[in-house]
Design goal:
The chain is of the alpha/beta class. The chain has one domain: P-loop containing nucleotide triphosphate hydrolases (Rossmann fold), CATH 3.40.50. The protein is built from seven helices and nine strands. It has a five-stranded parallel β-sheet with strand order 2-7-1-8-9, with helices on both faces. A four-stranded mixed β-sheet has the order 4-3-6-5. The longest helix is centred in the C-terminal third of the chain and has 15 residues. The structure holds guanosine-5'-monophosphate. Guanosine-5'-monophosphate binds next to β5, β6 and α4.
Length: 189
Amino acid sequence: MTTTPARLTVLAGPTAVGKGTVSADVRARYPQVWLSVSATTRAPRPGEVDGVHYHFVSAEEFDRMVDDGELLEWAVVHGRNRYGTPRGPVQERLAAGVPTLLEIDLQGARQVRETMPDARFVFLAPPSFDELVRRLVGRGTEDAEERERRLATARVELAAESEFDHVVVNDDVTRATDELVRVMGVVPA
Ligand code: 5GP
C-alpha cells in the first residue's frame, strides 16, 4: 500500500558496497518501487543502456541541466565524472504516490537532506572494512589508480554512517534488499 504523495528514500554508502547490486535487486523483485535514472558524464560500461541504467550525457548537456535547475542534486564522484538526479521524474512519481528510490553518493545525499528533509536516508554498510576492500579490488573494472582513488573516497564515506536514519548491512544482497524495502514501507515490517 502506498500513501499519496509517497516519501522519497535515498540509498547511499561507500564505493563498491553493492548499492548498484541492491538497487538492481529492488528493480527485479519490487516493481512497485521506482528507481530514479541519474544523468552522468561518464562513458557507458559494456551492457549499460542509455535511459535505463543512466542518461549518458555530454559535459555541455550536464552544464545545461545544472543551469536550468533540472537536477535535484548533483556531484563530482571520485574526483572525475559528474552524476545528478533529474528533478522532474522524481517529483512526478512522488506526486503519484509511487515509492521512489535514489541510489546516489554521499555528497548527493547531503544535498537531498537540505532540500527534502522528509526523505528517508538509508546507509548501505559493508560487513567490515576488509570486506569492502575485497569487493573493491575483486570487481576489477577499474585500473590501480582509479581503485586507490575509490578506496580513499570509501574511507571518508564510511565515517558518514551516523548521519543516516537507517543502516542496512549488505551481508547478503537478497536480505539487504528485503530490509531496504521494509524500511521504505513498501512491504510490511
Ligand atoms: P558508477 O560510475 O560506478 O555507476 O557510480 C559511481 C558512483 O556514483 C556511485 O557511488 C553512485 O552511487 C553514484 N551516483 C550515481 N548516480 C548518482 C547521482 O545521480 N547523484 C550522485 N550524487 N551520485 C550518483
